[in-house]
Amino acid sequence: MPEVLIDLSDGGVATLTLNRPHRKNGITKTLVDEAIDALQLLGAGTDCRVLVLTGAGRAFCSGMDLSEPIAPDEVTFMRRVGQLCRAGTCGGSGGDGADQPLRAGSRSG
């Protein structure tokens, strides 16, 4: 199952969903790699103008998945976004998971 889902609407709004609800969307190397690939795809000639970052399940992101630790600099994938980015969070966020919406600009609830 993919750890990141991407959906691009006709209106130029892309939604990137962290898709590890069984681990409260904890960040892994695979998730970061898939997110970077998705961001590169969105930046390569798509009509994406706005990116919405969200999480599947009841938590936005629990931070780094400690069962699969990665280097801290790999978690900064949000800095690669060229589009206006908003994070819509619902549920808990912790560690680097709490930082991602701050990097994006956020809305809670």
UniProtKB/TrEMBL annotation:
Keywords: Lyase. Residues 88-109 are annotated as: Disordered. It is an enzyme of class 4 (lyase). It holds the Pfam family ECH_1. InterPro entries: ClpP/crotonase-like_dom_sf, Enoyl-CoA_hydra/iso, Enoyl-CoA_Hydratase/Isomerase. Belongs to the enoyl-CoA hydratase/isomerase family. This is Hydroxycinnamoyl-CoA hydratase-lyase. The lineage of its organism: Bacteria, Bacillati, Actinomycetota, Actinomycetes, Mycobacteriales.
